[in-house]
C-alpha cells in the first residue's frame, strides 16, 4: 500500500472503546473501511453499535432509503487484551472471520502508567506490555502475512512524548520513544515489501487518558500548558489524511516539529529549557496546592 485508499480496506483499531481509537474507527468507516474495534473495555460493543447506527443513517440518507433499512454493518467489536499474545491471535482470527482479513492495524491502545520513576517492576511491565510489546506482538503476526500479500499498513499511536519527553512520567516517555522507534524500524525495513508504517505523535487530546494524568498534576499540566488540547475527531482526520498521503511522522500539533528540531539541533540547550519548564510547573502546582489547602482551612 503506497498511498492508502480506505474504501474496502479492512482495519483493526485497538483501544477503540473511546478517545482517539473510537475517532479513528469512525473516520475509517466514513471513508469506506470495515473495522474491528478492539478494547479491554466491554463498552467497545456500544461504541461499535453507535458507529453502525451512524453509518446506516448516512447510507440511508445518501441512498434515499427509509430509515429502518439495514445495510451491512461495518464496525465489529472485540473485547480482550491487545498486549497478550494469545488475545492478539484471537483478535486477528476474529478479524479474518468478521471482515475477511486485515490490511491495516492501528496500534492505538495505551496507558499513562505510573508517575515519576514508578515504584515497581510490575508498574513498568504493564506499561511496556501495553505501549510497546502490544505493537511488536501484533507485527510479528501480521508482517509475514503482509509480506506474502505485498500490502499492509501499521499505524502506531505514540505521542509527542515519544519525540520530546513526558514531564512527570519516565515510563510514559520511555515507552512512547520505543513505540516511535519500532514504527520507524518497520517503515524502513518492509518498504520494499509494499508495507508502510506511520506514527501519530499528538500533544494534548481531550480523552480519558489525559484526564487520568490529572492524578499526577505536573504531567497533566505539562501537556495542557504546552499547546492546544485537540478533539479526538480532529486527530483522527489529520491522521488519516496523512496515512492517505503515506506520511510516516504524523503531528496533529504542528509545533511539535519545531520542538523536535530544536532538541535535535542542540540537545543540551533543550534539556536545560525543559528542566526550567519543569521547575516552573512544580512551582505552579505547589502554589495551587497551597491555595486549595488555605481554602479548606
Ligand atoms: N490523550 C492524549 O492527550 C494523548 C496524547 C498523545 C498520545 N496519546 C495516545 O493515544 C492513544 C489513545 O489514548 P486516548 O487518549 O484515546 O485515551 P483513552 O484512555 O480514551 O483510550 C485508550 C483505550 O485503550 C484501552 N486499552 C488500554 N489497555 C488496553 C489493552 N491492554 N488491551 C486493549 N485495550 C486497552 C482502554 O480501555 C481505552 O479504551 C494512547 O496510546 C495514548 O498514549 C494520547
UniProtKB/TrEMBL annotation:
InterPro entries: NAD(P)-bd_dom_sf (IPR036291), Sc_DH/Rdtase_CS (IPR020904), SDR_fam (IPR002347). It comes from the Bacteria. Pfam families: adh_short. The keyword Oxidoreductase applies. Gene3D superfamilies: NAD(P)-binding Rossmann-like Domain. CDD domains: SDR_c. GO terms for molecular function: oxidoreductase activity. Keywords: Oxidoreductase. The keyword Iron-sulfur does not apply. Belongs to the short-chain dehydrogenases/reductases (SDR) family. PANTHER family: 5-KETO-D-GLUCONATE 5-REDUCTASE, ALCOHOL DEHYDROGENASE, PUTATIVE (AFU_ORTHOLOGUE AFUA_3G03445)-RELATED. This is NAD(P)-dependent dehydrogenase (Short-subunit alcohol dehydrogenase family). It comes from Brevibacterium marinum.
Amino acid at each position: 500500500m503506497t498511498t492508502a485508499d480506505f474504501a474496502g480496506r479492512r482495519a483493526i483499531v485497538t483501544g477503540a472503546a473511546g478517545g482517539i481509537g473510537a475517532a479513528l474507527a469512525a473516520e475509517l468507516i466514513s471513508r469506506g473501511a470495515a473495522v474491528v474495534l478492539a478494547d479491554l473495555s466491554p463498552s467497545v460493543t456500544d461504541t461499535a453499535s453507535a458507529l453502525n447506527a451512524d453509518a446506516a443513517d448516512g447510507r440511508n440518507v445518501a441512498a434515499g432509503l427509509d430509515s429502518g433499512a439495514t445495510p451491512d454493518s461495518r464496525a465489529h467489536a472485540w473485547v480482550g487484551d491487545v498486549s497478550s499474545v494469545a488475545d492478539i491471535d484471537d483478535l486477528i482470527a476474529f478479524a479474518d472471520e468478521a471482515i475477511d482479513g486485515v490490511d491495516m492495524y492501528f496500534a492505538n491502545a495505551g496507558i499513562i502508567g505510573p508517575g515519576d520513576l514508578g515504584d515497581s517492576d510490575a508498574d513498568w511491565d504493564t506499561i511496556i506490555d501495553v505501549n510497546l510489546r502490544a505493537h511488536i506482538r501484533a507485527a510479528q503476526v501480521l508482517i509475514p502475512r503482509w509480506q506474502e500479500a505485498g500490502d499492509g499498513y501499521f499505524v502506531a499511536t505514540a505521542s509527542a512524548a515519544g519525540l520530546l519527553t513526558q514531564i512527570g512520567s519516565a515510563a510514559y516517555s520511555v515507552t512512547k520513544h520505543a513505540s516511535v522507534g519500532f514504527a520507524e524500524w518497520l517503515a524502513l525495513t518492509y518498504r520494499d515489501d509494499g508495507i508502510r508504517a506511520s506514527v501519530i505523535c499528538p500533544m494534548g487530546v481531550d480523552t480519558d487518558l489525559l484526564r487520568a494524568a490529572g492524578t499526577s498534576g505536573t504531567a497533566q499540566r505539562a501537556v495542557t500548558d504546552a499547546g492546544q488540547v485537540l478533539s479526538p475527531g480532529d486527530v483522527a482526520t489529520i491522521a488519516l489524511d496523512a496515512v492517505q498521503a503515506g506520511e510516516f511522522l504524523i503531528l496533529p500539533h504542528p509545533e511539535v516539529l519545531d520542538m523536535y528540531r530544536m532538541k535535535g539541533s542542540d540537545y543540551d540547550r533543550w534539556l536545560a529549557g525543559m528542566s526550567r519548564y519543569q521547575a516552573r510547573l512544580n512551582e505552579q502546582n505547589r502554589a495551587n496546592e497551597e491555595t486549595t489547602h488555605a481554602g479548606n482551612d
